């Protein structure tokens, strides 16, 4: 979705990613009963940095980098998705920094009968459908490819697994003390 929005508005992907996450940050502020200012300032600062890092790597570092082997390209993407999902899950489990989309999913899970993974997968599907809709409405090439589908299938599941893995280990450590 972020790439499609970047195409529509001629804005860099990292900037769109930051804007999308800021929208979820506002939703979290509205949904949460515990609005601790320092937590939201930390999230806000992290989002700004995240967008800058995405733009730097996408437009400066990786712009001239190409892989000629399709399977190596897909394999590296899968590896990157697994690492990103595992890292995100660990950060969520530690509780030092919450990402707005994941915090939104956690807040929704505590307020309803659905799980974190249910909301996270739901958002992923919504983002894919939004990207397709933008492509059709603005006559852009369809930006949904194998990478999007790999992310759709792997990322939310790995985040949920990693988050729960750490929580279980944390509970085991606490029970031993």
TrEMBL record:
Q: Which UniProt keywords apply?
A: Membrane, Transmembrane, Transmembrane helix
The superkingdom listed in its UniProt entry is Bacteria
The protein's matches in InterPro entries, at most eight in alphabetical order, are given as: YczE/YyaS-like
Give the stretches traversing the membrane: 12-31, 40-58, 70-97, 118-136, 142-161
Give any Pfam family that matches: DUF6198
Name assigned to this protein = Integral membrane protein
State the species of origin: Carnobacterium divergens DSM 20623
């Amino acid at each position: 979705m972020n790439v499609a929005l970047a195409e529509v508005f001629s804005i860099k992907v990292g900037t769109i990613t930051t804007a999308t996450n800021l929208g979820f940050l506002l939703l979290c502020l509205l949904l949460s009963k515990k609005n601790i200012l320092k937590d939201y300032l930390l999230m806000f600062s992290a989002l700004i940095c995240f967008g800058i890092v995405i733009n730097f790597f996408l437009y400066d570092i990786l712009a001239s980098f190409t892989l000629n082997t399709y399977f190596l390209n897909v394999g590296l993407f899968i590896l990157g998705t697994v690492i990103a999902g595992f890292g995100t899950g660990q950060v969520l489990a530690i509780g030092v920094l919450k990402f707005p989309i994941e915090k939104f999913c956690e807040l929704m899970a505590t307020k309803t009968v659905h799980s974190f993974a249910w909301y996270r997968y739901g958002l992923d599907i919504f983002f894919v459908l939004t990207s397709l809709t933008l492509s059709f409405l603005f006559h852009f090439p369809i930006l949904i490819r194998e990478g999007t589908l790999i992310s759709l299938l792997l990322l939310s599941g790995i985040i949920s697994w990693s988050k729960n893995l750490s929580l279980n280990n944390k509970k085991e450590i606490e029970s031993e003390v």
